[in-house]
Amino acid sequence: xxxxxxxxxxxxxxxxxxxxxxxxxxxxxxxxxxxxxxxxxxxxxxxxxxxxxxxxxxxxxxxxxxxxxxxxxxxxxxxxxxxxxxxxxxxxxxxxxxxxxxxxxxxxxxxxxxxxxxxxxxxxxxxxxxxxxxxxxxxxxxxxxxxxxxxxxxxxxxxxxxxxxxxxxxxxxxxxxxxxxxxxxxxxxxxxxxxxxxxxxxxxxxxxxxxxxxxxxxxxxxxxxxxxxxxxxxxxxxxxxxxxxxxxxxxxxxxxxxxxxxxxxxxxxxxxxxxxxxxxxxxxxxxxxxxxxxxxxxxxxxxxxxxxxxxxxxxxxxxxxxxxxxxxxxxxxxxxxxxxxxxxxxxxxxxxxxxxxxxxxxxxxxxxxxxxxxxxxxxxxxxxxxxxxxxxxxxxxxxxxxxxxxxxxxxxxxxxxxxxxxxxxxxxxxxxxxxxxxxxxxxxxxxxxxxxxxx
Length: 455
Description:
This protein is 36% helix and 17% strand. By secondary structure, the protein is of the alpha/beta class. It has two domains: 172 residues, Aspartate Aminotransferase, domain 1 (Alpha-Beta Complex); 265 residues, 3-Layer(aba) Sandwich (Aspartate Aminotransferase, domain 2), CATH 3.40.640. Strands 4-12-11-10-7-5-6 form a seven-stranded mixed β-sheet. Strands 13, 14, 15, 17 and 18 form a five-stranded antiparallel β-sheet that branches. Strands 1-2-3-16 form a four-stranded mixed β-sheet. It starts with 7 loop residues before the first helix and ends in a 6-residue tail after the last helix. Keywords: Aminotransferase, Pyridoxal phosphate, Transferase.
């Protein structure tokens, strides 16, 4: 079959016939992409969309950015190797130069880097192995609402139990701690008190000989929970977790796979709190849109033997060239500051619908934002004032799609609309995105209330 002039329907039908039932995005975003440029994609039927999914945050510079395309073309035209395992090349050393330049000096000056197989979950697996090897301990401290990938070790850290039920027997060494989610405070106190209680709980748990928690090999957390619904950790809480882990010699692993490289308004999200981690996991944006994952960690943890961690595709030279170009561009053009400015601009649109009963919370940092939809009517005994409203969120997602905006859902009950646009998004783009979203939310709210809106 020729797909060059095929329609969305033809390609989607073929995909449904041949791909596994585990596929996700096409179920809510029914398009096949013909071309893409910057912050937009065009489907096979000629419809154009603003892309606020952007490869789940992978495309920091958007689609087909000239700087990234040029770097890849230059690599291919010069007959450079594209796959080298962990044998080094000039392209690899330049990538590491750029990567370390992007990190705070007090971390990078004593850091080592481990290249992993291509996905972020591979970096998480390597980080877990690293701290277990270095400490001799086995248990890991994770957090409720977390998402760190889909391999077995990474799934063990996930807060959502549905995806990990088939392998639950492998997960006895992970302890899930309360994340300071103010809107759905696990302790029911809410507000700023939420993170103070959460900090005290963790410290008391670790010091209680009857807690049932064995000596941890490490603590892993997301400074901003991504798939968990764009939930930012308060800086004070992050500083407390750094103090608690340092005082007890527990390596602190920060998962910056989605938040890293400028998205939250700092080059790395942990910089908002001014802390220095022991381990950072990175993927998505650092590969410039191509598969690449690394673990960067304090050299004191570098005790594993040669070959202790490997992976066939850890030598992706094309991704290193694209990643070097992306990192350099983000730093040279101050895209972290731009993300902070555009994030505030977009957030003003999101907050304009916060008065609606169906909107429970607007949150996030920089260009990593979320709007959580709720149902205020039924009695709700879970954390937070109201139940997540999955149906409303899916209706908003569909209404946005119909109007030319691609959004992802996440968070509790997949009831949070999430915004992850490329960092190069302009003021005009943000205004269009914001207007489309507000129009979609108001339309669904009016339909739910039975209000007739004049054409």
